[in-house]
Structure formats: C-alpha cells, structure tokens
Amino acid sequence: MASFKSSIPLTSDSAASVPSPHTSGEVHVIMGPMFAGKTTALLRRIKSEGNNGRNVAMIKSSKDTRYAIDSVVTHDGAKFPCWALPDLLSFRQNFGGEAYEKLDVIGIDEAQFFEDLYDFCCMAADHDGKTIIVAGLDGDYLRRSFGSVLEIIPLADTVTKLTARCELCGKRAFFTLRKTEETRTELIAGADVYMPVCRQHYVNGQVLMKAARTVVESHKFKSDTFPEVAAVV
Ligand SMILES: Nc1ncnc2c1ncn2[C@@H]1O[C@H](COP(=O)(O)OP(=O)(O)O)[C@@H](O)[C@H]1O
Ligand SMILES: Cc1cn([C@H]2C[C@H](O)[C@@H](COP(=O)(O)O)O2)c(=O)[nH]c1=O
C-alpha cells in the first residue's frame, strides 16, 4: 500500500512552536444594501450573546457620525454603546490588553470603512479565538466592491446577504441608489441621500442620475467658459 510521508515534521515539538488560539474563533458576515437591517441583525446577535453570559464589545467606524458618536444606531433608532475608531488594529490597545483577553464576541458595524478589516479578523478570530460579527455594505452606490467587506468572505464561517424593500415599487432591494450628483465613494448620509432599490429601479435611477450629472457639468462648463451665457441660462 502506498504510504504518505510528510516532509513537514508533525511532532509535538513543531506543534508547540506554533501559537495556538485559546478557543476556536469565528467570523460571521452580514452584508447588503443600506436599510436592509444589517445593524439591526448585528445588534440582535450581540445582545443575545451578552444575555448568554458572553463578554461582548461593539466597534464602529469613527467616520460614521450620523446618529451618535459613541453608539451604533439603526435607521429606526435602536442603540448600542460602541467604540468609534478610525481603524481596528488599535482596538486592543484602546480597550486594554487584559479586558481584550476576556472578550468573547466583537461586533463591527460600517465595516466597509475599515482598511485593516482582513488583518483584524485574522488576528482576532484565528489567533485570539474571538467570535467576530461583521456588518457592512458589500457594494457602493455604483455597485462596486466597497472597502474590504468582500475580501473577508474567504475567512468567514457564515455569510448573510440581507435585502431591503425598493422604495419605488416595494420589491426586494439589492442595491443602494445615491440621489445626489456627488461622485466621491465615501459620503456619510442616510435617507436624505440614499435609497434602497430593486435592479430595474437601480438601472433607471442610474440613467437619470447620469443625465442630471451631465446637465450640472455642462452648466459648470458654461459658467466657467461663458459666464455671460450661463447667467442667461
Ligand atoms: N428608506 C428608509 N428610510 C429610513 N428608514 C428605513 C428606510 N427603509 C427602511 N428603514 C428602516 O430601517 C430599518 C433597518 O435599519 P438598519 O438595521 O440600520 O439597516 P442597515 O444597517 O442595513 O442600513 C428597517 O427596519 C426600517 O425600519
Ligand atoms: C452606498 C454608499 C453608502 N455610503 C455610506 C452612507 C452611510 O453613511 C453608510 C452606510 O450605512 P448603513 O448603516 O448601511 O445604512 O455608508 C458611502 O459612503 N458610499 C456609498 O456609495
């Protein structure tokens, strides 16, 4: 019978040299468009873990100052206290090494804004044995991958894609439409600027927004080049 001989020593000596996690960590990803209930699902999960006697902490991006600075808040007003941080790898130091050791579960909201999401999830789940629950947008208003949320899918135990209701027809909404001409990727806002839409209304909405941007651009061009014409138009 053919036998397999590993060239990698699998002795207890080699096992001892690899740092082993305290317990087995987990990564769970909740994603989808705006208003899909991502933060609601994250809060429900974190509260339930806390009620089951596990030590929990919540982190959100300090870029999100919409409803509160030091709380995660859903669009319908449910709240949970959190650490608002510019990056994730500074969390351990901010939280305190000893307190971090005792943590079981870490929730992360607005995950699309954290550049170090992948490295943090690897460290916290693989090495430190934490359960990480991540909520964030998978795509931006142009339906391009947003931040590192999609990069952590290969690290995840579970992935949940939530949907909202299309604000124009009530069907399932998979996408977020930006209602203004602003083109930068990061634009912190709520229902004043964004709405959840189905595929058909996303496509129609993009055509409308593109036309609106062209009109605004041509008006800008006219007022820069021919100020006297633009004043009449
Ligand atoms: N267009 C909307 N404007 C404001 N609130 C909305 C809108 N659509 C849904 N909601 C509310 O937002 C809640 C979901 O909020 P939240 O969990 O913060 O969503 P997400 O984190 O996915 O953006 C829904 O249960 C609903 O009550
Ligand atoms: C689509 C899109 C969204 N944003 C911002 C807008 C909000 O501040 C957050 C998303 O919050 P939610 O909890 O998921 O409702 O992200 C952005 O900056 N750029 C975009 O393209």
Automatic annotation (TrEMBL):
Any one of the GO BP annotations: response to stress
Region described as Disordered: 1-22
Pathway assigned to this chain's UniProt record: Pyrimidine metabolism; Purine metabolism
Coiled-coil region list: none
Annotated GO MF terms: ATP binding; identical protein binding; metal ion binding; thymidine kinase activity
First-level EC class: transferase
Record EC number: 2.7.1.21
PANTHER family assigned: THYMIDINE KINASE (PTHR11441), THYMIDINE KINASE A (PTHR11441:SF12)
Keywords on record: ATP-binding, DNA synthesis, Kinase, Metal-binding, Nucleotide-binding, Transferase, Zinc
Protein name, as recorded: Thymidine kinase
Chemical reaction(s) catalysed: thymidine + ATP = dTMP + ADP + H(+)
Protein family: Belongs to the thymidine kinase family.
